[in-house]
Structures are given as C-alpha cells and as structure tokens.
Amino acid sequence: MKTYSLGLDFGTNSCRSLIVDLDNGQELASQVVPYPSWQDGVFLDSKDPNVARQEAEDYLFSMRESVRGAIDRANDDDSSFDRTRIIGIGIDATGSSPMPVNEEGLPLSQTPEFKGNPDAMVWLWKDHSSFAEAAQITELAEKERPRYLAKIGGIYSSEWFWSKILHCKNVSPEVFKAAHSFVEICDYIPAVLAGNTKPDSIVRSICAAGHKALYSETWGGLPDKEFLSDLNSDLGGLSDRLYTKAVSSDQLAGCLCREWGEELGLNPGIAIAVGAFDAHMGAVGAGVKEGTLVKILGTSTCDIMVFPRNKKLADIPGVCGIVDGSVLPGFFGIEAGQSAVGDIFFWFVHHLVPDSYGRTVENKFKNLEKEASLQKPGEHGLLALDWNNGNRTILVDVRLSGLILGQTLHTSAHEIYRALIEATAFGALTIINRIEEYGVAVNEIINCGGLAAKNPFLLQIYADITGRPMKVSQSDQTCALGAAIFGAVAAGPEQGGFKTVEEAQKAMTGIREVYQPDKNNHFVYKDIFKLYRQLHDAFGTSSWSGSLSFVMKDLIALRETQRQED
Amino acid sequence: MKTYSLGLDFGTNSCRSLIVDLDNGQELASQVVPYPSWQDGVFLDSKDPNVARQEAEDYLFSMRESVRGAIDRANDDDSSFDRTRIIGIGIDATGSSPMPVNEEGLPLSQTPEFKGNPDAMVWLWKDHSSFAEAAQITELAEKERPRYLAKIGGIYSSEWFWSKILHCKNVSPEVFKAAHSFVEICDYIPAVLAGNTKPDSIVRSICAAGHKALYSETWGGLPDKEFLSDLNSDLGGLSDRLYTKAVSSDQLAGCLCREWGEELGLNPGIAIAVGAFDAHMGAVGAGVKEGTLVKILGTSTCDIMVFPRNKKLADIPGVCGIVDGSVLPGFFGIEAGQSAVGDIFFWFVHHLVPDSYGRTVENKFKNLEKEASLQKPGEHGLLALDWNNGNRTILVDVRLSGLILGQTLHTSAHEIYRALIEATAFGALTIINRIEEYGVAVNEIINCGGLAAKNPFLLQIYADITGRPMKVSQSDQTCALGAAIFGAVAAGPEQGGFKTVEEAQKAMTGIREVYQPDKNNHFVYKDIFKLYRQLHDAFGTSSWSGSLSFVMKDLIALRETQRQED
Which of B6, B133, B375, B420 is buried most, with the most CB atoms less than 10 Å from its CB? Predict the structure, then answer.
C-alpha cells in the first residue's frame, strides 16, 4: 500500500505544504499560502531598514490553509490518494528567526501586554538591527572563547540567535524580562503540532543550535553561563531556560496531537521530525552528498555541503557554520550563503526599471533578460558588488552596501540587470573558492530554489562565471521535499518510511537538467572576476590596501574589445 | 536712438539668436532652432560611445531660422524695434569642435567625395574617440615641450584640437589628406557671415587656439613644426595651412557680407566680432570679473575665471587652460569644467526611472525632485562619482566611468537622483578647491545656463555642499548675451556700441537671485565630501594607494544618524 510524507516549508513570505509519494519521490500536491499580515508577512520599519519581524500566528494560519489545500488537491488529482496514509511530517523554516515566549510557550506578541510590539514578535532571519551586539559577541569570543568562533567562520553575525536576543535586551528590556525563553520557528512549529510548546519540552534542532546559537557537544551545548554573563549580566540567567541538548532531524520531535490532527485532517499520532532550517532540508531534497555543493537560489542564497565526520575538516574562515549533523546524520554540515540574490533583482526591477521594458514586474524581467542575453561578457563595461543586503559569506558583514560602476551616458537598465546577475555569480564563485582553499572539494553543483527553476539565463551566467556545470534539481520544492524526507525517516520503515536519509534520497531525489559553461565566456569572466575581487577586498576588508585606478580603465578596454568583435 | 546687438549661440543641440538692447541689456527677443539632422543634431555610433559628430550645414540652417525668428518676435513684441539698428553680431560655439575643410573653406562632408563620412564632419567637443592620441601628445610634450602642458593643466585632452586631428589622420587618412585645413566652428561661422571662408583668411579665436590648440604668443603661436612632425610626419605639413595669429573677441572678424545680410534680414557691413567658445562668452554675459567664478551649468559644466595679466599666476594642474585674453582682453582666462552634469541627470531619467514618477521626462524630473527634496544630506546613504562621461577637471581623463555605492534593497530612484546631483556638486567643489590652492581666490560664484535657470533644488545643494552662496545671473541666455556684448564692442562706440567689454558688462549684466548655504547641511556634507575625495582619488589617480573599507560603513552610520533625527 502506498505511503506518503508531508513536508512543510516555512519561507520568508509564505508556507508551502507538499505531499510526496515515498515510492518514487513524486510530488502529489503542493499548496502555497502567503502570510496574511503586512506586505508579504514582514513587518518593516520605514525609519530603520534593518528591521524585519513576523507574527508566529501567521505561520499557523498559513500552515492550516496550505495543508488543507494540498490534501484537497491530492484528492482531486489522484483518486487513489488516501490522506490517512500520510505517515510523517517534516518541517523546515527560515532562521535564525527566534521569538520570545512566556512560560507556557506562548509567543509574547500574542499576550495582551506585548501585542503589536515588534520586539515581541519573531525576529526574522534577515533582521539586521543587531549589528552592534554581533560585534560585541565576536569581540568577547575572540578574547575569551576563540573556539566558539572557529566553527562559524570567525565572525558572529547580526542575523543570529544571540545577537538578536542581546539586542532585544538592549532596546526592549521589558520584552526581554517577560521572555521565559526564546524559540526558533523551526522548533516552535513541531512543538505546536505535537501539542506541547512549553519551552523545556521543545525538542531543539541541532541545525539551528549549531549554526546560529554557538551550540556544540564539544563544549557541552550552548555557550557557558560565564561567557553569557560577561556579554550581559541578564543573559546568564536566561541560559537556564533555553536548552542543553539539540538533535538532528532524523529524530522525532513528537507525534501529531489530536487538536492539530483535526485542524489539518491528518491521523493523530503520526511522526513529526525535528525541524531544521529551510536551506539544510533543501540541500537534502536536492540530493546533497559528499563533494556536492547545493545552492538554494532565492531572495537570498544558501550554499550547503556535507563532509564526513570521521575525516579531518579545517575551520573555514568566513563560512557561516560547520555543524555535526545539521544536514545529514554522520556528516558535518557546512553552510555558506549570500545575503541577497533574487532580492537584488527585485529591488532593481521595482525601483529602477522604466515601463519601456513592460508594465508588470513579470514583463520587465522578461524584457530585461531578452535584451541582456544578447550581450557578451564585458560588453556593458559594468561591474557591481552584490552587497545591497550586506555580505554573509565570506565577509560576514551586514554593514556593507551595493556598488555599481562603469556607467556611461548610454548605459541601459538591461545592462545593469546583467551586471547585477554577474555580481551575484562572482559572489558565488568567491564562496566556492574559499571552501576549496580549505580542503573541501566541490565536484558537483546542484541548484534549487525559485531562481534555479525559473531563470535559465542566470544559470548560464553562473556556469560561465564559475566555469562549472550548473545542475538543476528535479524538484522545484527541494526544501519541502527535504522536510518530507525527514518526515519519512522519522516515521521509520515499520510505518512504510525509511531507515536512513540516504535511502530516502536515493528513492526521492534527482537531477532535471545541466547548464554547461561556455569556454570563451569563462575566459573573459576570469579577468572580470579579478576586478570584482579587487573591489570586494577594497570595500569589504580592513586589511586591504592598494590601488584601484586600473579598474575603470580595464573595464572600458574590455568593453571596447568585446564590442569590436561583433 | 536705440541700438541693438545680435548674439548667436551655437550649443550642442541648437542655435539660439538673441537680440539685446544696448542701453540696459534687455533681451528683446530670442529664438532657438534645433539642428535638423539625427536626434538633437548629433551623429552617434552605436558601436562606439566615444563618437559624436555634427554637420556644419546644420549650423547654417538653424542660424538662418533662429535669426529670422528672433527678428519677427522683436517686431511683434516691440513696435519701436528696428532691425536696421542692429549694429553688431557676436558668435559663440561649442569647442574644441574642429572640422576638415578644403582649400575654399568648404567643409569636407559637403564635398561629393566625403558626403556622409563621419570623419569629414565636425568633431563635436564631446567626441572622445581620440583618447590614445591625447595620451601620445601628453607624453611627447612631457618629454620635449613641458611648457606646452604647463598652461593646460598638465594633460592634453581627447576633446581637443590636435587629438582629434591626429585621430582623423590615424583612422581616416584619406580625409586627413583631403583636408587643406581644420577650422573650429566658432571661427567658421564668423567667416561664413563675412563672406570668406578661405582658411588663410579666417580670423582665428584666441579662446579656441589658446585653450585647445596649444597656441601661445610666448612660443610664437601654435606648436612648432618639429614637435608636430614628431607626433606624426604629416602633421608638420598641416601646420603651414592653419594659422599663425589668434585674437580676442573684442576684435573684428569681418563685416557682414551682402549675401548673408539678405539671408538674415540685417544690414550688410555691420561688425562681426571674433568668435569664442560658448562658456567663455557666457562668463562675460554673466558678469565675470576678477574673483568671480562663473559656472555655466548645462549638459556639461564650464567654470570660468579671469586673472589680471599683470599679476603673477601659477600653473594650476588639471585645469583645462590658462590663456591670455580668452575671456576678457587684459586678463588671463582660466577654464575648468565637468564633462557631464545635466547629461548625467538625463541619462538617469531616460534609462532608470520608472513611470511611477510620471510618464514624461518633465514629470519624472518634477517628482524625483519633489521626493528628493524631502531628504536630509546623507539620509539616502549613497555616494556617487560624476564620471559617466569621464572627468575633465581636475583629472583630465575620459577613461573613467560612473560609480554609485551605498544601495540597499530599499534605495529608490529619487534617492539616486539626489546622489547624482550631489556627485556633480562634489565635483564642482573639487575644482574650486584646486583653483584656490593655487592662489586664485574665489570670492563670488555666479551660475548661469539651463540648470541654473531651471533647478533651484540643485542650486541649494550646490550652496550647501560648497558652503558658498550661489548667485544666478540675471540673464537666462548668458552665452548669447556675452556674444551680443562682443558684437557691441566690435561695433564700437561710434556705431552706438561700447569701447570696452567692462563698460558693456556694466550696462548689460546683473544678478537675479542668491541661494544661501544652510550651515547644518554644509557641516554634514563636509564629511561626505571627504569620502567623495577618497573615491575620486582611489579610482581616478594612479598615485593613490590606501584603504576604502570605511567608506560604506561611514555612509551607513551617517544614514542612521540622519534618519534618527527625524
């Protein structure tokens, strides 16, 4: 008899539910429901572009609607489908996206006292308000606990757990005081489904804990109380109310409670896997294994690799995290990423593209791409930095910004669009080079996420700039698929699931297509990448010192060469 | 009885005729006629953005139409007007805009052999194809004739006379061979009106000769034949067919011939002043005197000062030229400028402003300005370089390009618009500082040209950034007014004109309004200017070496400060 798993993917703006056939990975039905509050579910502060918050209630609303919708669709599309044969649920979410909760596990923004207070909401991954606290944590750890930094690339980020909590303490002491604990969304949702959100009962994800909260078994869990107290005297007390153990997603977070079974139309008691971040589960859904780099290309980008825990792995400076078991059990998970990729293109199209390219965003993208694809590398004479939202890897610095140079009086929007895509590809190549320099071979690149599914033009530029084939995963929903894989593993073979993640991947993942690099284009891009690295180092590193007067001249000379070759 | 003078201003895209009352400078009537060929009268090459050419015939067509139109208007508006009381004509034109002519003075592009050949047309001032030749001239002069460079800022430009002629020789030897001579437009038009365009009869302008053709009486005129032959063996021969003497615009170029008297409806025999460049005559029309900087703000910018010839004046590196008599007789004329100002704003509005700001270019400008004027200095967090068309002063380098940095995912078009205006103001301040560092005090700044007349927002930013009052000349047509002043001086007091340029200025020029700097804004802009100078020197000078990692961080910090002060 057929069995299914349900993957729940909590993205930045919506929740996706995906029902997967465990025999072959076939995606029976999927439903996306945007978060209902504000625009795209994100609270923004017009005075401070660093702020990005969400309401946990939005997640539950969109989860309920999307699961019901997916079940309805599966019923409509496949008369043999039986929802009672869904044997497990896996959950991924953005992160680090922590929120303060009270003793019962109720989000503080749902208490009368803090309703509508942004500091009592979920601090979304891309909230950058906590940059000063991040610097403070890095500084203290450099002095007192250098081993904490070794596994997270050397710099603690403003996007992460402790920075956000410390900033909350600094700007909203009343919220901090009322917070019994702080919970990541990827831990909160499984707890809600299991019917127990009491902070000390919640099973915490090794993925969130290890990559963002300085958790490691080598030092016995979270940072020690002395270190936290040195950061802020009140932080030491909080640590007693967080957690001491975090586990990987092949483990059970609990079983579906009656109430949520009814809400979703699923059998109570089925397995709920421990949550993890979207990118990490996405990598599993894309088929990550040793030597494979999975790129999740979306509004931002996550790069995921795994490396056997029994082999020696160096610390890789600037890489977001190296965490035992965060992607696959038995492997170190390696995470890197770019703070904005699709977001940069959206910004450009929304703010700087005239209607001569089309009236809708969709048409603008189409025509920008059409014009830009006629150009050769270097023909536009432009060079950009992909830092409109800071740089996550390898600089780990949110206090950076975008840069475009090379404009003449004839530069057009589609030329800038191409330069922005190229900038994100140069950023991607910078990450690949860094990882390989530290002994982790990248033998294969699999792309997934929205841009991989929709943007062949971008993938070709990525292939040309990196000089490597760009594979695209078979599934368009690798995060939800990865979550479903973990749901099936958590359920186990006796329920019709799988014994290991590798077995599940073999049955359920694959490659759809491959973009091969063009050798001539790669040759030209090698030179432009050298210029990119000069700008990257000049504006992004305090150690750089040198000259830049050749940059504009080299780009002009290349532009002339490329145009004359027509 | 009233007397009038006619000023003819040959701009980049059109010819303006202005009839002025010599009693009080009142502008009776004015008519602008665009050049009829191509878009805005400029031949462009889609494969090479450096190319910009024009047809001399266009000038004659637009002159004829605009003079007739101005006379008709004056007749309509003032029944006492009598066109036979126009006693003189002054002419200004863009430059260096030379063209090849045959022995009769006929433009080569009007001969059957070279019709339609862009290299046989007028090489418009902003044509930048000759950058390699400019470098060659600079290099040779540094070695063999350093005195040639001392008065032109140290670097010979691709926009200038000899670079263009040498490039013509290199790319179109057949055009060069057929050229009996080369004539600047500001010399050609007076010769046409005087009825004799034979190259050896044309009275040449000291303004064009001194600023662009390395002419100086201190070395006996144009560069010596040996130097020219060293540049190219054929250039030595050409020098015999150019000129040995150039004079200032208070002198007569000739008297109006019968044919053109009839064409224009003017008395044959009236005085035609020697021509000069538009900016130089514009400075006179704006009231230039010792200590006054006149800024002509248009698609590009010219900065003009005068300094008494009997005082000691240092060479000023990077300043386009210091030429005895090029603006006012008895004074050194000092010329500096920015290669693109209005052109940058037009580029931006045409290529990168969505229709949400308006459907027409006019409405887009209006709404960009409206939104941008609500911002405080530094609030947008952006910094730009004003080099989309290279940098004329103080770097004298066309192989530079635009740069914008500081973009977030929220940066909007009006913020970039403001940053671009600020960039041009920082460029303006860089020029002022350079001139003052070399001992020429700038006690007063008078603005004129299209942007001065139309853009109070820009003038306020210029005042705030420079920390100096920005005066606006009474006339909107200072170039044509300056030309009319020279027409009146060339005619002389016996015809009802003036004895000296100073007398004519006193009667005919004035100030309309003054923008005072805001002290708080100036204080903030002083810090941003320091960052601008870092970028300026880093990308623009080969001698710079240093760090830049503070630039983005300082801008972000300033943005936060300025936003929080709301």
Answer: B6
Name the pLDDT band for B566 (thresholds 50, 70, 90): low
* Across B238-242, average pLDDT: 93
Instruction: Verify whether the Cβ–Cβ distance A399 to B552 is below 8 Å.
Output: yes
pLDDT at res. A566: 57
Least confident interval from A137-146, A350-359, B256-265, B445-454: B445-454
Provide the pLDDT for residue B321.
82
Secondary structure class of A188 (helix, strand, coil): helix
| Cross-chain residue pair B538–A548, CB shorter than 8 Å | yes
**Count of A-B CB contacts under 8 Å:** 163
Closest CB to A347: pick one of B402, B409, B548.
Answer: B409
Subunit contact A352:B352, Cβ cutoff 8 A: yes
The half-sphere exposure of A502 on its side-chain side, counting CA atoms within 13 A, is: 6
d(CA B276, CA B209): 10
Q: Are A94 and A185 in contact (CB under 8 A)?
A: yes
ipTM: 0.86
Show residues of chain B in contact with A542, CB under 8 Å: 547, 549
Nearest CA in chain A to B539: A549
Query: Per-residue confidence at A222, pLDDT binned at 50, 70, 90?
Result: very high
Beta strand A181-184 with A98-101 is antiparallel
Helix runs in B33-180, H state only: 56-77, 131-144, 146-150, 161-171, 173-178
User: CA-CA distances (angstroms) from residue B414 to A77, B308, B410?
Assistant: 49, 44, 12
Residue B132 near chain A (CB below 8 Å): no
Q: Do A400 and B552 touch (CB under 8 A)?
A: yes
* Across A159-165, average pLDDT: 96
- CA of A190: how far to CAs of A180, A195, A244, A476, in Å? 19, 9, 18, 24
Angle between helix axes A478-491 and A501-508 (nearest 10 degrees) is: 130
User: What pLDDT is recorded for position A261?
Assistant: 97
Task: Tell me how far apart the alpha carbons of residues A518 and A469 are, in angstroms, rounded to a whole number.
Answer: 10
Which parts of A28-160 fold into alpha helices (H)? 56-77, 131-144, 146-150
In angstroms, the separation between the Cα of residue A342 and the nearest Cα of chain B is 11
Contact between B301 and B424 (Cβ < 8 Å) = yes
Q: Residue B51 above 60 pLDDT?
A: yes
Instruction: Identify whether the C-beta of residue A296 lies closer than 8 Å to the C-beta of residue A276.
Output: no
Confidence at residue A47, expressed as pLDDT on a 0 to 100 scale? 84
8 Å CB contact between A13 and A58: no
**What does the mean pLDDT of chain B come to?**
95
B289, B334 Cβ separation under 8 angstroms: no
Buried b (16+ CB within 10 A) or exposed e, B443-461: ebbbbbbbbbbebebbbbb
**Is residue B419 less than 8 Å (CB to CB) from chain A?**
no
- The answer on pLDDT for B209 being more than 70 is yes
d(CA A460, CA A360): 25
Nearest-angstrom CA–CA distance, B455 and A356: 27
Strand pairing class (A98-101; A4-10) = unpaired
